[in-house]
UniProtKB/TrEMBL annotation:
Matches recorded under Pfam families: Fer4_12
UniProt entry keywords in alphabetical sequence: 4Fe-4S, Iron, Iron-sulfur, Metal-binding, S-adenosyl-L-methionine
Classification via PANTHER family: ANAEROBIC RIBONUCLEOSIDE-TRIPHOSPHATE REDUCTASE-ACTIVATING PROTEIN, PYRUVATE FORMATE-LYASE-ACTIVATING ENZYME
Recorded coiled-coil stretches: none
NCBIfam families reported for this sequence: NrdG
Entry protein name: Anaerobic ribonucleoside-triphosphate reductase activating protein
Cofactor: [4Fe-4S] cluster
GO molecular function: 4 iron, 4 sulfur cluster binding; [formate-C-acetyltransferase]-activating enzyme activity; metal ion binding; ribonucleoside-diphosphate reductase activity, thioredoxin disulfide as acceptor
Keyword Iron-sulfur set for record: yes
Database matches in SUPFAM superfamilies: Radical SAM enzymes
Keyword Cell inner membrane: no
């Protein structure tokens, strides 16, 4: 396992790996280097009925463990694959009951690194599809880029989970590319991808509903409030 505080580019070739990869601010794995054998099936958190982790009202499952170690990561406390508590049947039953609520649009997998926790997430995703079909969508965040996941030599379980996912937010967090105006992501290299359309076209396809802000919302509200107060006087 990569130790915290170090940054390594494990790939010495110039193969294309997606936007802003490799980066000196993260670890950059070669194809198949990291596997779900690193996982201890640990969950850092489960949150119900949020509107921040994707479209609509969602449930969010945060898995433990991430070796990308992006500098400035806001979830660095769960880089450890042994953080949190072990995934269990009780939690799974809670997730399924929550997803059954009519107002819940779907579930989001975050971390940590979901694609290194396929031992938990792949069976869960398949159970969700079996029970709900595509009436509930599945979003996933990953430090991998689409191009890296499509490289020869990447592990099959990652691709198997991708085939169950609707929307993928891909790429490392690069703090020098941070942009607070982005929708559902932290840095400009990251993309929101329509996974199934990307498979059909054989290339990364950006989510059709992408809508980044042009100005910071509190700034907009502040100007509108100031204008209203001026009119009142």
């Amino acid at each position: 396992m990569v130790q915290a505080g170090t940054r390594h580019d494990f790939v010495k070739t110039k193969e294309y790996r997606g936007p802003s990869v490799p980066s000196p601010l993260t670890n950059n794995p070669r194809a198949g280097q990291w596997t779900n054998a690193m996982s201890h099936n640990m969950i850092a958190d489960y949150k119900r009925f949020l509107m921040t982790d994707g479209e609509g009202i969602r449930c969010s499952l945060y898995v433990s463990g991430c070796p990308f170690h992006c500098e400035g990561c806001y979830n660095s406390s769960i880089w450890d694959f042994q953080a949190g508590h072990e995934y269990n049947e009780r939690l799974e039953a809670q997730i399924m009951d929550d997803l059954a609520q009519s107002f819940v649009q779907g579930i989001t997998f975050l971390g940590g690194e979901p694609l290194l926790n396929t031992g938990v997430l792949l069976p869960l995703a398949r159970k969700i599809r079996e029970r709900f079909g595509h009436t509930k969508d599945i979003w996933c965040w990953t430090g991998y880029t689409w191009e890296e996941l499509m490289r020869d030599g990447e592990t099959q379980d990652k691709l198997d989970l991708l085939h169950e996912i609707d929307i993928l937010v891909d790429g490392r967090y690069i703090k020098t590319l941070h942009d607070s105006l982005l929708q559902f992501r932290g840095s400009r290299n990251q993309r929101i991808l329509d996974v199934q359309e990307s498979f059909r076209q054989g290339k990364p396809v950006v989510w059709a509903k992408l809508h980044d802000q042009e100005r910071f919302i509190p700034e907009i509200y502040g100007k509108e409030r100031a204008a209203g107060e001026g009119d009142a006087s």
